Amino acid sequence: MTELAQTDYSRSNQEQWLSDLMDEYGDRLTKLAYSYLHDWGKSHEIIQDVFLTCYQQYNTHEEIQSYKAWIYRITINRCKDVLKSSWARRVVVNNSLFQFLQSKEPSPETASLKKDADILLAEKVMGLPVKYREIIHLHYYEELSVLEISRLLKTNENTVKTRLKRGRGLLGETVERGEWNEG
């Protein structure tokens, strides 16, 4: 977000600031929301709400030290609010994260094998309890460090490390066989 942090947005550029935020974080936030909610439609609704909140908080944008941490925190809080609601108790989970895990296909055979591994891993990640799933998602899919995750979730670094280790353990053989792509 270096470009956003370095750009001087005046009051008349509020829409441009929001547009830049949406371009920079829209897809990643939607995937993050999906990792909590398991519903693409609800994830899109959450992200619209997040960007509306950002727009309303424009007057404080100069005080934000890390846009990434700020906007991820808003998204995570909104997702947790939805999970506490009655909607979460009624929803039937039928979507899969693997829709976003398509890789560049060097050959049909390699692509098929990779897709199968990605689907298996995504299903296992989505089956984890939220406290492990969020750490796994932020660390591997969003490529955040343990320190960044700790600050983002306002959790002790050792707690993050423990949840990351336990999350890996719950994923079981998939990780042990080296099928997890840390790339």
From TrEMBL:
One GO MF term attached to the UniProt entry: sigma factor activity
Taxonomy, superkingdom: Bacteria
Record key words, sorted: Sigma factor, Transcription, Transcription regulation
Domain annotation RNA polymerase sigma-70 region: ranges: 21-87
One example of a Gene Ontology biological process annotation: DNA-templated transcription initiation
Gene3D superfamilies: 1.10.1740.10, Winged helix-like DNA-binding domain superfamily/Winged helix DNA-binding domain
A matching Pfam family: Sigma70_r4_2
Domain RNA polymerase sigma factor 70 region 4 type, first and last residues per copy: 123-168
Family that this chain belongs to: Belongs to the sigma-70 factor family. ECF subfamily.
The protein's name: RNA polymerase factor sigma C
